[in-house]
Amino acid sequence: MHPISGEIDEEFDLIGREADHLSAVLQRLDGGAPLEPESQEEWEATTLCASAAEKIYTGCERVMAKLATEVDGEKVDKGDAWHRALLDRMRQPFHGRDAVVTDETHALLDKMRAFRHRERNTYGFNLDTVIVLERAREVIQAYDGLAADVRRLLDAYPGDPQQPQP
């Protein structure tokens, strides 16, 4: 197990709490009456789900950045398109480590990366509710995929060569 496993687990716990709250909102929306277009309720649901999806993706990105620094030993350059570069790096083997994420997880996370940019730069009433709810469901899948992929990587890590093995 890699020495940063505890830090990653703590981050995943926080992301998981956010994902659980988002899941509860989505469940309530699925079980309720359809949202009236351009109503206060539609705006609230759209804004809340978009914000939660953005926060979950941002947490996932923090995990990936931590892996880039601590496991790869090399930070991602924060120049133009660094968000995409980080995500693409997690899909590829890097300096002797296996790919962190599967192609499926990468595809979901990439969708979320693009959505996050739109969410941050758009007012809630300009977001398409149907798309927001779809992305909210997908971000939970992306988080679940990333958590499983990262756990697999960290569990397979041989340990810190600086620490004596029991």
Q: What would your notes on this structure say?
A:
The chain has a single domain, classed as Four Helix Bundle (Hemerythrin (Met), subunit A) (Up-down Bundle). It has five helices and no strands. It has helices at 5-31, 40-70, 82-91, 103-120, 129-156. The chain is mainly α and 166 residues long. Helix content is 69%, strand content 0%. It starts with a helix and ends in a 10-residue tail after the last helix.
Keyphrases for this structure?
single chain, 166 residues, mainly alpha, Four Helix Bundle (Hemerythrin (Met), subunit A), 5 helices, elongated, disordered C terminus
- Largest beta-sheet characterization: none
Average pLDDT over all residues: 90
Measured distance between first and last alpha carbons? 13 Å
Coarse structural class: mainly alpha
List the helices and strands in order.
HHHHH
DSSP strand count: 0
CATH class (first level) name = Mainly Alpha
CATH topology: Four Helix Bundle (Hemerythrin (Met), subunit A)
Q: What is the CATH architecture annotation? A: Up-down Bundle
